Input
Amino acid sequence: MSFLNTLIAKSLPLVPKSIVGQVSKRYIAGSTVHEAVNVVRDLNAKHMLATVDILGEDVYSESEAVAIKDEWLNVLSTIREASIDSNCSLKLSQLGLRIDSELCYRNLEAIVSAARKAGNFVRIDMEDSSTTSDTIAQYRRLREAGYDNVGVVIQAYLRRSEEDIRALAKLKANIRLCKGIYVEPEDIAFRDRYAIRRNFVLLLRTLFESGCYVGIATHDDYIIEKAYELIERSKLAREQYEFQMLLGVREQLRDSIVARGHRLRVYVPFGQAWYAYSVRRLNENPQIAGYIVKAMFGLNNS
Ligand SMILES: Cc1cc2nc3c(=O)[nH]c(=O)nc-3n(C[C@H](O)[C@H](O)[C@H](O)COP(=O)(O)OP(=O)(O)OC[C@H]3O[C@@H](n4cnc5c(N)ncnc54)[C@H](O)[C@@H]3O)c2cc1C
Output
């Protein structure tokens, strides 16, 4: 399958945008915040929470970074007006992290502050390993400034993550734990899927033992079963963790998690940048192309 995936990923720019749009529809809520609101409303009606994400990353001018900050402020007020149950997931490279860390912090603080006033929460997504330390530093700075309505992401494939988690546990950080989606070199990241799984479960156990709130972000049956065991063994209340999944992925599994009484949050990406995002993600990680083929032919996506 991997050759086919690579072929699809590389030839995607040749595929008409409308076809890419058709396939991406399952994973992306649309190009406007109002389309995202409609998707979130449907999820809420199925007793699922949401987190919205404005697609796009790697902004290289101050004016673009400020414009994205303003877009986020608009998203926060739209969520409030629509009375939907959704928080926000943002990427710091959108807010200027690669230009100037002060600019990024100013934008981030404005969003987190507006979210606090609206009774909402902001998750800082984790990007590739060139941004890990800076992202954690921005998160820590917000916490030092007294913001509690903010969380960060830790990637189980990074070898440094155990140490990061032990340090963040002292702050009782709110952490989304995921495997990690970028292609990273072997000296800093586990590459073997079993090693990544093992590390995920180890980190999850450490987080639960430290009393941190965890967003368990995975579609992997093995990890979900292990999470159920840990939750039961640690006698965790429903409010101490949540499962998280991507829009359009393994919907039957999603339903079964909710039916068992756990909280589940769906990641809802939207925005004008949906096409660039789809092409880029596919080129970075051609494995995803396999999911697109499956989606096209309706195979095994439950
Ligand atoms: C809510 C959420 C937020 C995330 N945030 C980040 C982040 O901030 N930074 C980061 O680096 N990564 C993030 N990720 C991505 C994550 O790191 C993984 O790359 C991704 O979730 C796939 O890993 P998995 O644990 O689902 O296991 P996998 O072994 O990849 O998947 C398990 C099974 O789920 C199905 N599946 C998985 N993904 C898809 C898909 N896209 N389409 C269709 N089927 C699929 C397949 O059937 C697969 O066999 C996030 C993931 C989620 C769910």
User: Anything to note?
Assistant: Residues 1-28+274-302 form one domain. The two ends are 19 Å apart (CA to CA). The pocket of flavin-adenine dinucleotide is lined by residues 125-126, 153, 155, 178-182, 217-220, 244-246, 249-250, 267, 288, 291, 301 (CB under 6 Å). The longest strand covers residues 264-270.
